[in-house]
Amino acid sequence: MRAPANTRHPLLLWAWGQVRLDFTGFAVGALFFCLSLTPSLLPRDWLFAGLIGGLNAMIGYGIGVVIGKGFHRFVLHHRHWWPPPKRVLYWMKAAVIATAITSGLLVLVPAAGWQRQVSALMGIQGPSTVGYLRTMVVAIVGIMLINVPHPSRWERPSTSSSTAVTRLWFFS
Q: pLDDT digits over 89-98, tens only?
């Protein structure tokens, strides 16, 4: 038996509101995360790489939301075939999430190697590949912490600061 909607825990309401992601933003955010792991002139440990990756993923998400909303408004708005059936849309969203997570994990392996090369040039010990996988965890936690709304706003789903700014700034 389900509890009435008004008796659900506020944190559960917030988490359910986060599920409604913009998937164009999610894909561009994943691309920005992967690009943040490319070699740099200074060696980065997994913690710093995770913080930079999370910040770049958030910037990419915002850019992707703007691109997606603009594309929907100016290209797909009056198309008779858009939106596709719910089943097709579900599988498209699942493919975007699976591709984004897989690409992020696959880029972490060469990124660890690149960081070891840069560290060797600098004469310091580089990160291990398994240890460098923590970068993705730090990036995800960083994104979640910045996107958490104030507890007074937990009653209304999807009221994170990024969602509110997007709604006010673009197509409100």
A: 888 888 998 9
